[in-house]
Specification:
Number of helices: 8
Largest sheet: 8 strands, mixed
Strand order of the largest sheet: 8-7-9-17-12-18-16-15
Number of strands: 19
Shape: globular
Low-confidence stretches: none
Order of helices and strands: EEEEHHHEEEHEHEEEEEEEEEHHEEH
Distance between the termini: 33 Å
CATH class of the largest domain: Alpha Beta
CATH topology of the largest domain: Spore Coat Polysaccharide Biosynthesis Protein SpsA, Chain A
Number of domains: 2
Structural class: alpha+beta
Radius of gyration: 20 Å
Length: about 300
């Protein structure tokens, strides 16, 4: 193959050994003598070769996240895909692969941990009433209070993620969440889903290698199936289901690392969003909750569904 057509769907071939390193990742087929090194750009391309995202969608997604001309980055993407196929690392198909090993997630069977400052009785009562009426299992977690408050929120998320006796699936909610008219209890998701965001945000981080608080309408997403979107850089931690230990550990490590950069206003959001490229992170096409502006939440960025810019 010289260059793959826009409608082809690349998927990673089986029996691949991937070794992460500081600058990217090294890929190697079992029994192969030599590995194929990818830089950070190549790693981003590789992560999107999931058997469900077309070449055209990969190009569109990454053109929005790299600081270069569209024509230049598109050519780099196509060349990288062709090289990966030549090395036997990718398989190109005409149609997306169907979800395998789908599982039904029922929110009534999942424990939720609600972050709340003990002194904020208004928000605490708001969450108690709302979750009780919905019949959801929940536990209030005393927030870590410090200045700035965004740091305390990040530390509070870390406190929950670090508890080894809390095992996926579980949900973390911030206490300004409001469940909306789209609420439902069950979702059919692929078994390899790392996280499922019940709410969304219009803010997304810039990547690769350039993490900041993010920009408005910079969320990178693609249609995953008829009910869900896949997100790649979304800043939204107000309502998240953690569905795998692998993703929970990745979020824990990335958030801990983000705390060392004092330029991040919301290090927790940035840390977790930076893991999206390497995991399957989904959100319903119609989010089922948002952050209420009545409690100082980001209603303007979290109330509406993700749409094309």
């Amino acid at each position: 193959m010289t260059q793959p057509g826009p409608d082809l769907v690349p998927s990673r071939r089986r029996f691949i050994v991937s070794r992460p390193h500081a600058e990217g990742v090294t890929l190697k087929r079992r029994l192969a003598r030599q590995g194929f090194q990818l830089n950070r750009t190549g790693k981003a391309i590789w992560s999107l070769c999931d058997g469900r995202t077309s070449v055209k969608a990969i190009c569109n997604l990454l053109e929005r996240s790299f600081e270069s001309s569209a024509g230049s980055i598109r050519q780099d993407i196509l060349s990288t895909l062709a090289e990966l196929e030549r090395h036997g690392l990718l398989l190109f198909e005409n149609k997306p692969r169907r979800n395998r090993g789908a599982t039904t997630i029922d929110l009534r069977n999942i424990p939720f941990y609600v972050i709340n400052c003990k002194a904020d009785t208004v928000k605490r009562e708001h969450m108690r009433q709302q979750l009780s009426q919905l019949g959801l299992r929940f536990e209030m977690v005393d927030a870590i209070e410090c200045s700035p408050s965004s740091l305390g929120t990040t530390l509070s998320h870390l406190k929950i993620l670090a508890q080894k006796d809390i095992k996926p699936p579980f949900g973390i909610l911030e206490d300004d969440c409001v469940f909306n008219e789209h609420f439902r209890y069950t979702f059919d998701l692929p078994a390899d889903t790392g996280a499922f965001y019940l709410g969304v945000s219009r803010f997304g981080i810039e990547f690769p290698g350039k993490l900041s608080w993010g920009k408005w309408d910079q969320v990178i997403w693609s249609r995953y199936d008829r009910n869900n979107l896949r997100v790649y850089n979304m800043l939204a931690l107000h309502a998240v289901l953690y569905l795998s230990n692998t993703f929970r550990q990745a979020a824990l490590d990335a958030t801990t690392g983000a705390l060392t950069n004092f330029e991040y206003e919301f290090p927790g959001d940035v840390g977790v969003a930076s893991t999206h490229l390497n995991h399957l992170v989904l959100t319903p096409i119609e989010p089922i909750c948002y952050q209420s502006a009545l409690f100082g939440g980001q209603e303007d960025s979290t109330r509406s569904a993700l749409t094309e810019i």
